[in-house]
TrEMBL record:
Record key words, sorted: 4Fe-4S, Iron, Iron-sulfur, Metal-binding
Species for this entry: Halomarina oriensis
Family according to the record: Belongs to the complex I 51 kDa subunit family.
Entry-linked InterPro entries: Nuo51_FMN-bd, Nuo51_FMN-bd_sf, Nuop51_4Fe4S-bd, Nuop51_4Fe4S-bd_sf
UniProt keyword Flavoprotein, yes or no: no
Domain NADH-ubiquinone oxidoreductase 51kDa subunit iron-sulphur binding: residue ranges: 409-454
GO molecular function (one): 4 iron, 4 sulfur cluster binding
Keyword Ribonucleoprotein on entry: no
Protein name in UniProt: NADH dehydrogenase FAD-containing subunit
Length: 503
C-alpha cells in the first residue's frame, strides 16, 4: 500500500524483490518508501519499477541503478518522475491493486486475482486487508465456483461438492495446495506463489474452515526455490498477525515431474512412495486421501478465486450469470518474444490473450491447454471451462502461439512421445496406448495414414485411462487431425507443408 512522507505526500517506489536495483533505491532518503514486490506476470527485457506519488504511478522497464536512484531522489522531493517512463497512470490513493496502463500486456483482461502482483509486497498481509474471515461454503455454493488447473481435486467442476464429500467422510480433514506444476508453460500458479502467496494461503485457510481441516499443506515443485521462500515468508507473516488462524500451513516439496502434479500422484509423492502411480477412484481423495484422511486438493489458482469470491461476491458473479463464474489465468507462450500471464473474465474470448503478445512470425495455430492442449486455428472461443471443453481445448491456462514454421503433425507427435515416455505405467490404456499412438504417427511419415485406427485408439485411451494423463494425452492428436487433416495426408505423401520435418 502507499504510505505518506513527513510532508503528507503519498510516495512509494516499487522494485522487484529479486532485483539488484533495491539497494540503489534505499540509499537515497529515509523518507522514500521502497516496497519490494514480486513479478507482474509480464516477462520483459528487464525488471519493472514503478514510482507513485499521490495517486499517479509511472512505469519504468529495465532501468539501471542510476535511473532508480534518480527516481528515488524525485520521490524524496515529492515529485513524480516521468522522463523516460513507459507510461503514467492515474488512480485512487491507497489502491491495493496494480494500476493498468492503457496499452501493452498489462492492459489485457482484468487484474482481480493478479491485482497484488507487482504492487503489494508478498508478505504484507495488512496491505491485502488482513485475513479473510468466515465460512465460505454459502458464497461458493451460490456462485458455483469451478476448480482450476489439472492438479485440482475438482477440475472444471463445482469445488463445493468436494468439500461436502470431505465433510461427510470420517477422520480429520486436510487441505492440500497443489502447486507442483512441472509444465513451465503454465505460469499462473507459480506467479501467484511468487508474487501474492498470502492470497493463496488466505484461500486455503478459508477452505480449511469449510471442511474443519486440522492441517494445510502446500505441495511445491522441488525446483521452485523462489516460490518456496515466498510461501515460507508469507506463512511467517500469518503467524505474526493478530488475527492468525490456529491452523499453520506447512510446506513440502515433490519431484520435478509432470505426473507428480496429478492430484493422486501428488498424494503418493507426499507420502514418500518409491514409485509414483495414479490411484484408482473411487474412493476419491476427499474421502480417502493423504495418509487415509479426507483430503481437499486445490491449485493456487482455485484458492485465490475462493478468496476473491468471499471478498466481493457481487463482483465475482454467480452461476445464474455464467456457467463458470470468476476469471481464469492464461499464460501466453510459444513463438513469442516474452511470456505473459493475463487474467481474463470467463466470458471473454481467448483471442484477447493473444493481444498481450505478438507472434514472432505469421500466426498459424495455437495449442490451448498446456502439454496436452488442443491444436486450433482460431482463438475465438470463450475462456470458460465449458466452452473450452466443447471446442476440445484444454483448460490448464496456457495458450501457445505458433507461426507458420511449426508443423501440426510434428507438434502432435512430440506430445505423444512425451505421453509414452512420462506416463506412470499404472494402467494399460495409457501405458500401451501411448506406445501405439506414437507408432501410428510414425507410420504417417512412412506413407501410411490410418485415420480410423488413430481415432479408435484415442477414443479408447480417453474413455478408459485411470487418470487425466491418459485421457488428455490424446487431445493434441485428435485436434490436429480435425484442423490439419491435409497436413497428415501430405506427410503420408512424403512432404511437410511447413517445411519443418525432414521427410
Amino acid at each position: 500500500m502507499e504510505k505518506t512522507t513527513d510532508g503528507g505526500t503519498v510516495s512509494t517506489l516499487r522494485v522487484p524483490l529479486d532485483s539488484a536495483l533495491r539497494g540503489a533505491a534505499r540509499d537515497v532518503d529515509e523518507g522514500v518508501v521502497v516496497t519490494a514486490v514480486g513479478p507482474t506476470g509480464v516477462e520483459r527485457s528487464g525488471p519493472l519499477v514503478t514510482a507513485t506519488v499521490d495517486g499517479r504511478t509511472a512505469f519504468f522497464t529495465d532501468p539501471d541503478r542510476e535511473t532508480v536512484r534518480g527516481l528515488a531522489e524525485s520521490l524524496a522531493d515529492e515529485e513524480l518522475p516521468t522522463d523516460g517512463a513507459d507510461g503514467v497512470v492515474g488512480h485512487d490513493i491507497g489502491v491495493g491493486t496494480l494500476p493498468t496502463p492503457d496499452g501493452g500486456p498489462l492492459s489485457v483482461g482484468t487484474r482481480r486475482v493478479l491485482g497484488p502482483c507487482g504492487w503489494v509486497a508478498p508478505d504484507d498481509l495488512d496491505a491485502l486487508g488482513g485475513p479473510t474471515r468466515g465460512d465460505p461454503r454459502q458464497e461458493v455454493r451460490e456462485a458455483g465456483l469451478l476448480g482450476r488447473g489439472r492438479g485440482d481435486g475438482a477440475p472444471d467442476r463445482p469445488v463445493v461438492d468436494e468439500w461436502d464429500r470431505a465433510n461427510d467422510a470420517d477422520g480429520d480433514s486436510v487441505v492440500v495446495v497443489n502447486a507442483n506444476e512441472a509444465d513451465y508453460r503454465a505460469e499462473g500458479d507459480r506467479l501467484l506463489l511468487e508474487s501474492a502467496p498470502l492470497t493463496v494461503l488466505d484461500g486455503a485457510l478459508l477452505v480449511a474452515r469449510a471442511v474443519e481441516a486440522t492441517d494445510v499443506v502446500v505441495y511445491l515443485n522441488e525446483d521452485d526455490a523462489t516460490a518456496r521462500q515466498r510461501v515460507e515468508d508469507a506463512i511467517a507473516a500469518l503467524g505474526e498477525h493478530d488475527g492468525r488462524d490456529d491452523v499453520v500451513p506447512e510446506v513440502v516439496a515433490g519431484p520435478d515431474q509432470y505426473t507428480a502434479g496429478e492430484m493422486t500422484m501428488a498424494l503418493e509423492a507426499m507420502e514418500g512412495a518409491d514409485r509414483i502411480e495414479a490411484r484408482l477412484r473411487p474412493p476419491y481423495p476427499s474421502e480417502h486421501g493423504l495418509y487415509g484422511r479426507p483430503t481437499v486438493i486445490h491449485t493456487p489458482r482455485t484458492l485465490a478465486q475462493v478468496r476473491s469470491l468471499v471478498r466481493d461476491a457481487e463482483a465475482f458473479g454467480s452461476r445464474s450469470e455464467s456457467d463458470d463464474p470468476g476469471t481464469r489465468l492464461v499464460s501466453v507462450a510459444g513463438d513469442v518474444a516474452h511470456r505473459v500471464t493475463v487474467e481474463l473474465p470467463t466470458g471473454a474470448s481467448l483471442s484477447r490473450a493473444r493481444e498481450a503478445m505478438d507472434v514472432e512470425g505469421r500466426f498459424k495455430m495455437a495449442c490451448v491447454g498446456g502439454q496436452f492442449g488442443g491444436l486450433t486455428r482460431s482463438l475465438d472461443v470463450p475462456a470458460s471451462a465449458p466452452a473450452l471443453a466443447a471446442a476440445d481445448l484444454g483448460t490448464n491456462g496456457v495458450v501457445e502461439l505458433f507461426d507458420t514454421g511449426q508443423c501440426a503433425v510434428e507438434t502432435a507427435g512430440s506430445r505423444a512421445r512425451f505421453a509414452r515416455d512420462e506416463n506412470c505405467g499404472r494402467c494399460v490404456p495409457c501405458r500401451e496406448g501411448s506406445k501405439q499412438l506414437l507408432d501410428l504417427l510414425r507410420d504417417v511419415y512412412d506413407g501410411s495414414y490410418e485415420a480410423d485406427m488413430l481415432r479408435e485408439l484415442t477414443r479408447t485411451m480417453a474413455t478408459t485411462s485411470t487418470c487425466a494423463f491418459g485421457s488428455e494425452a490424446t487431445r493434441p492428436v485428435t485436434t490436429a487431425m480435425d484442423d490439419f487433416e491435409t497436413e497428415f495426408r501430405a506427410h503420408a505423401e512424403g512432404r511437410c507443408p511447413s517445411g519443418a520435418c525432414d521427410i
